Amino acid sequence: MRSEPRVELMHGVPSILPLRLEAVSFAVRGKPLLTDIGLEVTSGQRIMVLGPNGAGKSLTLRLCHGLLQPTKGRVTWLGAGANTPRRRHAMVFQRPVMLRRSALANITHALALQGIGRAQRKEQALAALRHFGLEALADRPARVLSGGEQQRLAMARAWALRPEVLFLDEPCAALDPGATHAIEEMIQAFHRAGVTIVMTTHNMGQARRLADEVIFLHHGRLLEQTPAAEFFEQPRSEAADAFMKGELLW
Amino acid sequence: MGQENAFLAAWRLIVELDPALVEIVILSLRVSLTAVLLASLLGLPIGAALAIYRFRGRGAAIVIFNAMMGLPPVVAGLVVYLLLSRSGPFGGLGLLFTPTAMIIAQTVLILPIVVSLTRQVIEDLWQEYEEQLRSLGSSTARAIPTLLRDARFSLITSVLAGFGRASAEVGAVLIVGGNIAGYTRTMTTAIALETARGDLALALGLGILLILLTLLLNTLAYGTGRFAQRTTG
Amino acid sequence: MVKHTNAREFNSTRRNILAGAAMGLAGLSALALSSTQALAQEEFITVASTTSTEQSGLFDHILPLFEEETGIEVRVIAQGTGQALDTGRRGDADVVFVHAKAAEEEFVEGGYGVERFEVMYNDFVVVGPNSDPAGVAGSDDVVEAFATIAETESTFASRGDDSGTHKAELALWGMADVEPGGNWYRETGSGMGPTLNTAAQMPAYALADRGTWISFQNRGDLEIVVEGDDRLFNQYGVILVNPEMHEHVKAEEGQAFIDWLVSEEGQEAIGSYELNGEQLFYPNAS
Questions:
Q1: Which of A78, B38, B124, C262 sits at 20 to 30 Å (Cα–Cα) from C21?
Q2: Membrane spanning segments where (chain B) (predicted)?
């Protein structure tokens, strides 16, 4: 049963989605970095957050994930399952931080932080590695793995946590094409298991391959939230249009 | 007697393995290693907490611990002496002029070193780890054992620095231990005594022995650290 | 359900931290306990004495004899006389064994000590560089020699540490009507041995007790320049710290030590101690 953990989790557990941001602003020492962001994330989508450097993409993800608190406005999980104490959304960073222990122990540590019993941790961690064909890495020290292997391990770690939403912040920015492809495959696996994806990327090809919906940010403001087909056909905002043509540099 | 005899004296000390000397060496190691153990048990978590918690007076606490790294051993010894003296607040314990008093004094002496160096190491590591650990659901308190564990190779250095200070100092143990022959005489107080007696060769011989012991312990620590690092990454 | 596991994990984290702290405390108290048990198991007394007696090696010679006879271990803290008396005053020793008669009598009068017993004497010697810049070598009038040293401003190394030797030196300056000070008068603020080490390097004149001088090995150019004057007489006394002042004082064992020191046997042991063929202390208990 545990080999398909996602399905098991989804059955009978109320969802935490939708996620709503209402008039969210974020400022550091009075300098506004995000202004008046409003958006809603619904279940099952693959949402790509796009925009030039400094638009506030990573900040938006961190606010959603709860790593940062908005200076103004509210971030709310509206679903009936939102009140359980366990965090049911996970995040994968551009550069994953691996602890100085084995790949397997990195996953069991994350599970321990989620309050999962000792006996169950190892089983669940191994299942996650196996799901992505990474069981050969289990006993290797995580710190000496290659960048691509570490990112795949980070994905497996996120998988083991059985999230309902997965945030990814430029997960392939530091990777070669092969590793990028592997990560995209893993993202699709999450999607197939019903996990909602919210991801930033600078790679337009990747955005086209993965997106159901696009959020476009510019200068800390949300300019549009548009279905992917429509966005890549013709963005609604001028800035996004310029961005797509490579004319918008910041 | 000239210094040219010091190496001979050191060599003789090692070869003859005089039981009184063995006793002194064992006591020295016992006192300093116990002090290091206690200072680590207290100092590693305190240093880590200081690194990652934000609270009022944190800056002051950091400055004080940093400054206390330079605490003169005699001052630490004097404070512990006054506390443990029969006329002091803890006089009833009868600990003055015992090895326990020396352990307490050395713990006081090296705690700031362990705390300060640990804080520095953990602060750097926390910068790297904070987002990831928070994302995985770690509370700040729960992060402390994780960080200490991951910094363990760097922390060996701070613990060794503490041991170095403990094993090298004479001022504190002399005051609170009393340099009693066969009971509280350590390597360093014996060196001080032999210097006072004008037996410089023997004093230097003991000094060479102390350096060799310190070297041996550091080699062991470094070796095991490197070995562990190679096997765990 | 989920909530419960979470709480348990949180608790176990707290438990880990608490366990760590508890282990630390347990370790500390175990250590403390082990040494207090040691206190209870074996009989011992703490004697505050002077660096001169310790460094001369006298205790290494006589204490085993006493310990064998009585089973009482004697732990000697070697300090300057002033500091040794202070250690007794604070109750940190059971017996003081020092050499500064006036200070000892004051100690007893102040109620800190029970009674003063005279045990032995040795004498002080004036040592100085063999070049003898003050020209006092061979004199048997120490007061005149001190006056000459001051007059010629020849370098003099003083203990300056409120020890018995320091007190004796100050008394001699007094007799010579000299207020010591100035560039030629150097206070080392340390024990007899370190002061002799310093004097050998300067070089300088210094007042030393004969015991330390005989056992001292780093003499350099120093040699005895004045000796044999009655005013260089150095009397040692032993006093039990007053148990009425400090109730934990081991009066019985401490008195046993004093009784042994002034007994025929103890006196003989003191008199038989020789270093480099020279007798260091002369027993004179009444």
A1: B124
A2: 20-53, 60-84, 90-115, 155-180, 200-221
Q: Which of C114, C191, C202 is nearest to C154 (CA)?
A: C202
pTM: 0.83
Q: Are the Cβ atoms of B180 and C14 closer than 8 angstroms? A: no
Range(s) of the domain holding residue C194: 122-232
Residue B3 lies in a domain: no
* A6-64 pLDDT tens trace: 444 444 578 898 999 999 999 999 899 999 999 999 998 999 999 998 899 999 999 99
The number of domains in chain C is 2
Task: Please report which confidence band the pLDDT of residue C7 belongs to, taking 50, 70 and 90 as the band edges.
Answer: very low
Last residue of a domain, one of C189, C210, C232: C232
Q: Residue B32 is part of a domain; what is its CATH number? A: 1.10.3720.10
The two structure tokens encoding residue A131? 């799901």
**SS3 state of residue C100:** coil
Mutate one of A84, A120, A162 to test the C interface: name it (highest C CB count within 10 A). A84
In this model, does residue C35 exceed pLDDT 80?
no
Q: What domain range is B198 assigned to? A: 18-226
Residue C188 is assigned to a structural domain of this protein: yes
B189 and B30 Cβ atoms separated by less than 8 Å? no
pLDDT at B65: 96
Q: How many CB atoms lie within 10 A of CB C248?
A: 13
Whether C218 is covered by a domain: the verdict is: yes
Answer whether residue B103 is part of any domain: yes
**B30 within some domain:** yes
**More reliable by pLDDT, A157 or C18:** A157
* pLDDT tens sequence for chain A (250 residues): 333 444 444 445 788 989 999 999 999 998 999 999 999 999 989 999 999 988 999 999 999 999 999 999 999 999 888 877 678 999 999 999 999 999 999 999 999 999 899 989 999 999 999 999 999 999 999 999 999 999 999 999 999 999 999 999 999 998 999 999 999 999 999 999 999 999 999 999 999 999 999 999 999 999 999 999 999 999 898 899 988 888 766 5
| Tokens encoding A138 | 């289990």
- Indicate whether C126 and C219 sit together in one domain: yes
Domain assignment of residue B194, yes or no: yes
Selected residue of C9, C45, C217 to mutate for chain B interface (largest B Cβ count, 10 A): C217
Residue A8 confidence (pLDDT):
40
Q: At what angle do helices C251-262 and C264-271 cross, to 10 degrees?
A: 60
Determine what percent of chain C falls in helix, strand and coil, rounding each to the nearest 5: 50, 25, 30
Reading the block at residue B224, the tokens are: 């095991």
Closest residue to A100, CB basis, from B134, B136, B150: B150
Query: C117 with C129, same domain?
Result: no
Across the interface, whether the CB atoms of B146 and A161 are under 8 A apart is answered no
C8 — contact with chain A (CB < 8 Å)? yes
Contact A93 B131 (CB under 8 A): yes
Say if residue C223 is in the same domain as residue C256. Answer: no
In three-state secondary structure terms, B228 is helix
Residue C223 lies in a domain: yes
Amino acid at position A245, single letter: K
Q: Is C2 on the interface with A (CB under 8 A)?
A: yes
Q: Indicate yes or no: CB of A86 within 8 angstroms of CB of C2.
A: yes
Q: Which residue of chain C is at minimal alpha-carbon distance from A117?
A: C5
Question: How many percent of chain C have pLDDT more than 90?
Answer: 69
Chain-centroid distance, C-alpha A55: 18
Any domain includes C26: no
Q: Which of A85, A112, A113 sits opposite C2 (nearest CB)?
A: A85
Q: Please name every residue paired with C113 in a beta bridge, in sequence order, or none if there are none.
A: C241
Number of structural domains in chain B: 1
Task: Answer yes or no: is pLDDT of B230 > 80.
Answer: no
Closest CA to C147 of C117, C119, C177: C177
CA nearest C103: which of C5, C171, C55?
C171
We report the CATH number of the domain holding residue C276 as 3.40.190.10
Among residues C232, C249, C271, which one ends one of the domains?
C232
